[in-house]
Write a structure and sequence with these properties.
Elements (H helix, E strand, L loop, with lengths): L1 H9 L7 H20 L7 H27 L9 H19 L9 H23 L9 H4 L3
């Protein structure tokens, strides 16, 4: 997931509010890289506090974006920039909740299956939208030129 979050951070370069979203995806990229180097890092106080702060802020933003999408009665969520931002932050929140205390206890089948699904979904969705150019036709120009 560190690779996905790093890639998600990179494609924000063209976004009008790039700094905000690069931090939003960059922090999870770094925290996930730490897990890759040492699984027990999730038990350290610093890692947990940074992850908890990110989950708190992301949950707040996800709630605001979700409410906005609901009020607009958006049918095709991925065609709206808020829908894509909502989905990306939701993935970070769920991923951090899965990683929480992963260094302490053995990973069960449910947690492993959920992790595999969450890991493959963004890459498959990205590939699907990349292949089907007509789905990207209504996107703003800054969303079409990053990759």
């Amino acid at each position: 997931m560190s690779v996905f979050f790093a890639l998600a951070s990179y494609v924000q370069i063209n976004d009008p509010d790039a700094g905000l979203w690069m931090v939003g995806y960059g922090v999870p990229a770094v925290l996930c890289a730490f897990i890759g180097f040492n699984q027990r890092v999730t038990e350290s106080l610093v890692w947990r506090r940074v992850a908890d702060l990110h989950v708190l802020i992301s949950t707040t933003v996800v709630s605001i974006l979700g409410w906005k999408l609901y009020k607009l009665k958006t049918a095709d969520v991925f065609q709206q920039e808020e829908g894509r931002e909502f989905s990306g932050l939701l993935i970070t929140v769920v991923w951090f909740l899965l990683c929480r205390h992963s260094g302490r206890s053995p990973v069960g089948m449910l947690r492993a299956s959920t992790a595999v699904a969450i890991t493959t979904f963004p890459f498959v969705a990205w590939l699907y939208y990349y292949i089907n150019q007509e789905l990207r036709s209504s996107w703003p120009s800054h969303c079409k030129t990053a990759i």
